[in-house]
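Notebook, student rotation project (T.W.).
Task set for the rotation: take a protein with a known small-molecule partner, predict the structure of the complex, and write up what can be learned from the model alone. Partner molecule chosen: NAP. Sequence and SMILES entered below by T.W., checked by me.
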Amino acid sequence: MQTVTLNDGKTIPQLGFGVFKVDPAETERIVTEALEVGYRHIDTAAIYRNEEGVGRAIAASGIPREELYITTKLWNDRQDDAQAAMAESLEKLGLDYVDLYLIHWPAPSNDKYVGAWESLIELRSQGLTKSIGLANFVVPYLERILKETDVVPAVDQIELHPAHQQPATVELARKNGVAIESWGPLGQAKYPLLEYPELTGPAAAHGKTAAQVVIRWHLQNGYIVFPKTNHKARMIENFEVFDFELSDSEMAAITALEREGMVGGDPHALH
Ligand SMILES: NC(=O)c1ccc[n+]([C@@H]2O[C@H](COP(=O)([O-])OP(=O)(O)OC[C@H]3O[C@@H](n4cnc5c(N)ncnc54)[C@H](OP(=O)(O)O)[C@@H]3O)[C@@H](O)[C@H]2O)c1
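Predicted structure of the complex:
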C-alpha cells in the first residue's frame, strides 16, 4: 500500500475505508469484509456511533495492531472534554491508542476549537494517539490554529472531490505541511460525478470504472482518501486503483470539473 509521510514523521496508508453512515449493526461485518479485501486504514468517528463495530472487526481479524491505521474524531459537544471523549472512543474501539485523532468540525460559534487543539496535543503526548489533526478546518480556522498554537496539524480532512476542491484551504495546508484527506471523495453519490464524460472517458480508455478514476485522481494529487461502501464488490473495485495512471491531460480535465459543488455540511455552521 502506498503511504504518505505526515509532518510528525508517521506514515499513513494513502487509501483507506470510511464508515460514515455505516449502520452500527452492520459495521462489524462490513469492516471485516474491508479488512479481507486488504484495507488497513479505517476512518470512523464518535458521532458515527459505530466505533464498537469497528473494534469488534479489528479484534476478530487477528491482524497485528501495528499493521492497522485507525482514525477517530472528537465530536463538537466534547471540545472542552477531549480527555474523557478519547477514553470513551478507545474503550469502544477496544484499543490502547488510535493512529490519528481529529477535531471533527471547528464549530466556530462555540469558539472552543483552539482549546480542543491544546487538549489533542496533550493526548498525543500521553501516547493515546500517534498523530493529531483537524477536519473541516477551512481557511480562517486552520489559520487560527497555525497562528495561536505550537503544533502544526498532521492532516486536515475536508470535503474534496472534483466538483468541490477547496483550493484555498488546500493551498494553505500544503504551504504549512498539513496533509489533505478528502472526505466524500466520490461526491457521496449525491453529485452525478460518476456520469461525467471527464470520468467515463478515461475509465473506458483504461478499462476501469468512473469510481476508480476518481479515486486515482485523489491519489495522484497526493490526497489521502477512504471511500465508503457497504458492498464487498465495490470495496474490491475501490481498492484496485494502483495498476493504472491518469495522464496529465486526463487529470487536468477532471480538475476542471470544479463548480463549488459542496454536498456535505458547511464548516462555518455549527453541527
Ligand atoms: N470529517 C468529516 O466531516 C467527514 C464527513 C463525511 C465523510 N467523512 C469520511 O469520509 C469517508 C468517505 O466519504 P463518504 O462516505 O461521505 O462518501 P463517498 O465515499 O464519497 O461516497 C459514498 C457513497 O458512494 C457509493 N459508492 C462507493 N463506492 C462506489 C463505487 N465504486 N461505485 C459507485 N458508487 C459507490 C456508496 O454507496 P454504497 O455504500 O451503497 O456502495 C455511498 O453511497 C466517510 O465514510 C467518512 O469516513 C468525514
